[in-house]
Amino acid sequence: KTIYLEDLVADVLKDEKVKKVTYDYKALMVCLNHLGIEINGLSFDLLLAAYIVDSSLNNDIKAVVQYFGYQLPNQDDNNLSLFDNSDKVGAMNVAYAISLIESKALKELESLGGLDLYRNVELPLTIVLAKMEIEGFPLDVNKLEEFGEVFKERRITFRKGFPHTQDGLSFQKFIKTFLNGSVLKCSLENF
C-alpha cells in the first residue's frame, strides 16, 4: 500500500484532536478550502490574540512577533507569510515564532482580562467568518438592480455611513419607502 504525504497532512489538518497553532486561522481555512483541504482543531491564533492585546499592530507578522519579544531572522519583509511558497525558511521561522509566543500571548491576554473574549468570542467567530467567506453571499439580482435604480433616481450618496438625498430623504424613510420591510428585517429604532 502506498501512503502519500499529502494524504497524511490532510488527515492531520482535518483531525479535530490535533490542535492547530497559527497566525490568521481564517485566511488559512479559506485558502485550504480552495485547495479542497479541510482544517479543524483551532487552538491558538496569534493574529486574534495580538489584536485583543494591541489593536494597533494590525496584520503585520513582524510587528506582532516583535511585540511579544521575538525577533525573526533577517528576511525580506514583503515576503513574510505562511502562504508564500518562495520563502519556505521564512514560513518555518514564522511558524516557529508562533509556537514560542503562544504561552506568552495567552498570559498577556489573561492579565488584560481578554482571555475569555479571545476563547469564547474571537476563536469561534473566526471559524464562522471563514465559513461565511467560503460559502459566499447569495444575492437577489432583480432586487439589487431595483436598488440601483432607486439610488440613481434619488441621487443617494453616502456620507459617514448614512445615505442622504438631495430632497432630504432620511435613512429611515428610505428603508420604509423602498424596502417595505420585505428585504431588511430590522428595527428602525436602531438607526
Structure, explained:
By secondary structure, the protein is mostly helical. The chain is built from eight helices and four strands. The strands form two sheets. A two-stranded parallel sheet has the order 1-2. It has a two-stranded antiparallel sheet with strand order 3-4. β3 (157-159) and β4 form a beta hairpin. α2 (25-34) runs parallel beside α6 (115-135) and α3 (46-53) crosses α5 (88-111). The longest helix has 24 residues, at 88-111. Residues 181-191 have low confidence and may be disordered.
Task: Using brief descriptors, characterize the structure shown.
two-stranded parallel sheet; 54% helix; 8 helices; two-stranded antiparallel sheet; 191 residues; mainly alpha; globular
Largest sheet descriptor: 2 strands, parallel
Task: Quickly count the helices.
Answer: 8
Low-confidence stretches: 181-191
User: What is the alpha-carbon Rg in Å?
Assistant: 23 Å
Beta content = 5-15%
- Structural class by sheet pairing and helices: mainly alpha
Order of adjacent strands in the largest pleated sheet? 1-2
Helix content: 40-55%
Distance between the termini: 64 Å
Number of E-type strands: 4
Q: What letter string, H or E per element, gives the SSE order?
A: HEHEHHHHHEEH
Task: Look at the structure and give the mean pLDDT.
Answer: 79
This entry's quaternary arrangement is single chain
Global geometry: globular
